[in-house]
């Protein structure tokens, strides 16, 4: 079968987008999440016909659903060239994982500057979520560009080779973030003089059963006004009880302790419950809560 030209492919994409627009022309679209697994921008031949999304198709999707999108999730961009028309989801709440994971190994990764982000006109973005394969320069640029509206950040401490940018990022955002989701408290131990004055929620993953965790590495959160602490419920049986007890006693503003990854039948160990009662802290169970849901508790 002969390969389609780039223009022929774009014409097909435009027809798909027009079809979507007609499909929802008589009723307001109710799309809340737009997830793009592959974004092809360089005109290269498709590896398959199922997963690749080209700029014309993406533009059509945004035009059809832009008024209702609350999450824009872009993965695996093959180049740093994006569609000519800007992205304007009017009710955006999150950007997640925009990175160059499928670039060829021999092509050196480029730093993406704030000036490259002009096409992302997302005035309502509140939550920045990173992934461990993200390009840290891009995540940093997004954090700077979205500083005026960001209130939540997740998984930024997972990014490799982030000794330079993560301290800078949290230095810029420390008085803005109300919710923070982290995996590696060790990353914060080397960041001096952070003052999270607006922090209401802290979620910590993969640490309760770490016997080598130095609890003093979390001391920077002691004076933050953290009201909601979120920990893994499934790890309580193999954790050292001092971790949870330490958090309940040291976080002076704590009012709610949430165990995630468990159903409503879960019951925390009695020593946890007693510590919560003694400090007037409510306990909650949630299976797979989003940070947005947790912020509303």
How would you portray this structure in words?
- By secondary structure, the protein is of the alpha/beta class.
- The protein folds into two domains: 1-173; 179-297, Rossmann fold.
- Helices cover 26% and strands 15% of the residues.
- It contains eight helices and twelve strands.
- It has helices at residues 6-23, 55-65, 136-145, 165-173, 186-189, 241-250, 270-278, 291-295; strands at 33-36, 38-39, 52-53, 71-74, 94-96, 127-129, 152-154, 179-182, 201-204, 228-232, 256-260, 282-286.
- Strands 1-4-5-6-7-8-9-10-11-12 form a ten-stranded parallel sheet. Strands 2-3 form a two-stranded parallel sheet.
- It is globular and about 65 Å long.
- It starts with 5 loop residues before the first helix and ends with a helix.
- Mean pLDDT is 68; it is low at 76-118.
- It comes from Puccinia striiformis f. sp. tritici PST-78.
- This is FBD domain-containing protein.
